[in-house]
Design a protein that fits this description.
single chain; 12 helices
């Protein structure tokens, strides 16, 4: 049943963790021979979170915002106009608004709105910033993950739609944590697993695990730590 309904219908944390383990292989298939997406993804998941965390006050720089946008566009649909809009923000303004957004957490509505005052930044890009610096409460609003969640309205890149989606991601992270040996799932992990499953099903289905029932084990199922011109 889980395979028919997709990853979302699977309640087994070990299966979700197995999908997450496939992220690197799926990413390579999605990136193609040039591998630019791989480098950007490693930066987004490892270097950017470390840089944000190391600062006295969490924020992103304009250079980081531009690179984050490049990651987002390489992972999804390419919209070159957004890069011009983001580059039009002053470096000082990006630091100011992003710092304000992180201070406003866990009020996700206020945090997203603070980032959306920047040119070229909509709810999806704002969610990517917040997921990099606060993965325990935020998840990137990827098209693949949003469309994988049943019961949501047709996809719209609005704050309202993001909050509906995020609520479901937080609920699923809690459920997976309670059912796993280590209990360390975040909304960010959930989104990554859903993206991996959706892209993998299209590009390299043979690499994905079977979502059928598995025997109960004491094995740790924690996800490994690896870490239009309308704005989205």
């Amino acid at each position: 049943m889980a395979a028919a309904g997709g990853l979302w219908s699977c309640a087994d944390p070990s299966r979700w963790a197995a999908v997450l383990e496939c992220r690197g292989a799926v990413l390579r298939a999605r990136a193609g021979p040039q591998g630019r997406l791989e480098a950007l993804d490693q930066w987004y998941r490892e270097e950017l979170p470390a840089a944000i965390e190391a600062r006295a006050e969490k924020h992103v720089t304009r250079d980081e915002l531009e690179r984050l946008l490049a990651w987002k566009l390489a992972r999804g649909r390419f919209r070159p106009r957004l890069r011009q809009l983001v580059a039009a923000n002053s470096p000082e303004l990006v630091v100011q608004r992003s710092a304000a957004a992180f201070r406003l957490l866990p009020d996700m509505y206020a945090a997203v709105m603070a980032l959306c005052t920047l040119r070229g930044v909509g709810p999806a890009t704002a969610s990517a910033v917040l997921a990099a610096g606060a993965p325990e409460v935020a998840a990137f609003m990827s098209e693949e993950a949003v469309t994988a969640v049943p019961g949501l309205p047709a996809l719209q890149y609005t704050v309202k739609h993001y909050l509906l989606y995020l609520s479901r991601m937080q609920e699923r992270a809690t459920a997976l944590s309670q059912g796993s040996a280590s209990g360390l799932w975040t909304p960010h992990h959930v989104e990554t697993a859903l993206w991996t499953w959706a892209v993998g099903r299209k590009m390299c289905p043979n690499l994905l695990p079977n979502l059928g029932p598995s025997p109960v084990t004491a094995e740790d199922t924690r996800p490994t730590k690896k870490r239009r011109t309308q704005a989205e």
